[in-house]
Amino acid sequence: MTSSTAHRSGFACFVGRPNAGKSTLTNALVGTKVAITSNKPQTTRHAIRGIVHRDDAQLVIVDTPGLHRPRTLLGQRLNDVVRETWSEVDVIGLCVPADQKVGPGDRFIAAELAKVAQRTPVLGVVTKTDLVPQEQVAAQLLALQEVMDFAELVPVSAVDGFQVSTLADLLVARLPEGPQLYPGGELTDEPEATLVAELIREAALEGVRDELPHSIAVTIEEMAPREGRDDMVDVHALLYVERSSQKGIVLGHRGERLKRVGTEARKQIERLLGSRVYLDLHVKIAKDWQRDPKQLRRLGF
Ligand SMILES: Nc1nc2c(ncn2[C@@H]2O[C@H](COP(=O)(O)OP(=O)(O)OP(=O)(O)O)[C@@H](O)[C@H]2O)c(=O)[nH]1
Ligand SMILES: [Mg+2]
């Protein structure tokens, strides 16, 4: 028997061009940072699950990489992650920022989604509404309506919180009835080491540009509480770049830049782990790793 108070549970995913605001929106819905964000394209590199707990539902949001025209094997792999994710969820949100014209990239994604839309509802989500006047939001909703037949259209801002809970309601309404999928209080199923590596990458993305953001990868070589101490975790991490010229930029003059990245990342990691952290961070060159299947595998792609 169904009743209006039945508990719902399931999966939603956000898709869209790089930089559309998918990860920021995921974090806003979950209420904490589960995915790193930046103003560089292709910040997200795997499907990240964030869990929204409510009395009436458990909504698992899967944040995906931005779908784009791939130029490397990594880019292809990222796009594969997106397509695999949207074929598995209960509801999809196509994110389009309010401050940019609906373009060929959005139409390309919508055309692909139209095939999925027969069995999975797709919501049109206009993000970043805080950046533009109201009329422009209205115009963007109209423009988005043209690209495909959406189950629902909703404008949101992850920054000022506008309609974030409305979006949660709309997503939850599309979930099947079911029990909790994750224990109460669990906000993500990302391994701690992955979150730590991501926080380091987020800090490293700050202030770099052009090709460099794409070339950066971070691995955690070792992470453990310091022997004999319960208030200190030692983290040994490697920051990969693809060329020696990039290593110079990341290090900065006398290693000053890397030091700043380490300090910023350490603060974030301490907040995440709730303990003091010693971060040992080194830069290594993995030549052209974005194009090399073997190295991609080693880096987890
Ligand atoms: N003003 C404003 N900025 C936002 C909002 N949402 C995201 N941004 C900014 O937009 C940029 C991209 O945000 P992300 O959440 O990383 O975008 P993404 O879609 O996950 O990007 P990829 O992972 O590269 O696909 C960041 O600089 C965010 O701070 C919003 O609601 N308002
Ligand atoms: Mg992202």
Automatic annotation (TrEMBL):
Q: What is its main location?
A: cytoplasm
- Which membrane topology term applies here? Peripheral membrane protein
Q: Name one GO molecular function term.
A: ribosomal small subunit binding
Q: Where is this region: G5?
A: 156-158
Task: Cite the KH type-2 domain residue spans from the record.
Answer: 208-287
Region G2: list its residue ranges.
Answer: 42-46
Domain spans labelled Era-type G: 8-177
Self-association or partners: how does it assemble? Monomer.
* Role summary: An essential GTPase that binds both GDP and GTP, with rapid nucleotide exchange. Plays a role in 16S rRNA processing and 30S ribosomal subunit biogenesis and possibly also in cell cycle regulation and energy metabolism.
Its recorded name reads: GTPase Era
Q: State the organism named in the record.
A: Actinokineospora bangkokensis
Phylogenetic lineage: Bacteria, Bacillati, Actinomycetota, Actinomycetes, Pseudonocardiales
Name of the gene encoding the protein in the UniProt record: era
